[in-house]
Write a structure and sequence with these properties.
7 strands; 5 helices; alpha+beta
């Protein structure tokens, strides 16, 4: 297969640091500040040992293109919050859709998730469309959740149940 998700390794630390600080990634994150390298190293070390969070590098052949994360929800049985980004500007067209499909298959099959939750800044229309394309439905709005650049930003919550994913992907 051309594309796959693989586990994080120590060798990914600097690449993911670069991705997390890219100008086209940061504005779509809840925290849009530049991440200091020392903070990233601490986060990365914790990530490698944290069994409640699952990070996968999205690769084509051996070339890393992006990152996907799943964090178990404390309040919902077998529900996971997910996050993702393509970090390479020259990623092939359609790579994001492939990454999303592989990631959801991973979550529902390997993690035995029953529900995936995506929280998207209302300013990130591309991510909202991406969620809908994958079969997610918006279920909540957290109005005025983040204050940035003199304005409040709403967070829109999207959910996808395993049964809906199985129907949508077929």
């Amino acid at each position: 297969m051309d594309y796959e998700l693989r586990s994080l390794t120590d060798e990914d630390k600097d690449l993911i640091f670069k991705w997390r600080n890219l100008e086209f990634i940061r504005p779509n994150m809840f925290n849009d500040k530049i991440i200091p390298y020392e903070d990233h190293c601490q986060w990365f070390a914790n990530t490698l040992t944290n069994h409640a969070e699952h990070y996968r590098v999205f690769v084509k052949h051996t070339q890393p293109l992006g990152l996907v994360s799943f964090k178990k929800s404390d309040s919902q049985h077998l529900a996971y919050f997910w996050g993702f980004y393509i970090g390479e500007l020259d990623a092939p067209k359609g790579a994001g859709s492939i990454m999303g499909s592989l990631a959801l298959d991973y979550a529902f099959e390997s993690l035995n998730a029953k529900r995936i939750i995506g929280e998207v800044l209302s300013t990130n229309k591309k991510s909202e469309a991406f969620h809908r394309k994958l079969g997610f439905k918006q279920d909540l709005r957290y109005k005025n959740s983040i204050y940035r650049n003199g304005q409040f930003i709403t967070i829109n919550r999207f959910v996808l149940d395993k049964e809906n994913w199985e129907f949508h992907r077929s």
